[in-house]
């Protein structure tokens, strides 16, 4: 797949809330993730990250530095990635892949103490598993029971 032009990651800003609240997902996808409007009320230790195409948010995810991370990793410097979504009208353009490729450098810049990103992906969500594997996440062989069944715990080392 060719490199997508002008994709950047940016911390959530109120300027873009209206864009994010217009995100839509198919029912198939929504069963595995949350829409930005469902998770945009951040608590301490949660950070909203937008996948930007030029100045338009096309994707969104959360990074957590909360007690919840301990459910997925024993690493005190790990962060948890949740709620990755790409607005339905922007899917199949490589934005999720490019956003995840940019994740390592973004985390190094914004969260320099972090040396690992962990996530849980549903065993039935094969497209997401492939995405994460293709950008360097490895299956930790740990499993967790989620609301929609078994989840694979994956990790990306931040060098």
TrEMBL record:
PROSITE patterns according to UniProt: GNAT (PS51186)
Name of the molecule in the record: GNAT family N-acetyltransferase
Entry-linked SUPFAM superfamilies: Acyl-CoA N-acyltransferases (Nat)
Source taxonomy: Bacteria, Bacillati, Bacillota, Bacilli, Bacillales
All residue ranges annotated as the N-acetyltransferase domain in the record: 7-159
Record's signal peptide: none
Record InterPro entries: Acyl_CoA_acyltransferase (IPR016181), GNAT_dom (IPR000182)
């Amino acid at each position: 797949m060719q490199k997508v032009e002008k994709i950047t990651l940016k911390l959530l800003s109120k300027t873009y809330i209206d864009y994010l609240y217009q995100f839509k997902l198919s029912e198939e996808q929504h069963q595995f993730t949350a829409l930005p409007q469902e998770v945009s009320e951040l608590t301490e230790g949660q950070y909203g990250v937008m996948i930007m195409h030029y100045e338009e948010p096309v994707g969104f995810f959360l990074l957590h530095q909360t007690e919840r991370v301990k459910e997925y990793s024993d690493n005190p410097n790990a962060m948890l990635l949740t709620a990755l979504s790409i607005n339905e009208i922007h899917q199949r353009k490589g934005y999720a892949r490019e956003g995840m490729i940019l994740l390592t450098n973004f985390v190094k810049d914004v969260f320099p103490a972090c040396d690992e990103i962990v996530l849980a992906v549903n065993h039935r969500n094969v497209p997401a598993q492939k995405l994460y594997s293709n950008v360097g996440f490895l299956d930790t062989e740990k499993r967790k029971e989620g609301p929609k069944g078994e989840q694979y715990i994956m990790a990306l080392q931040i060098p």
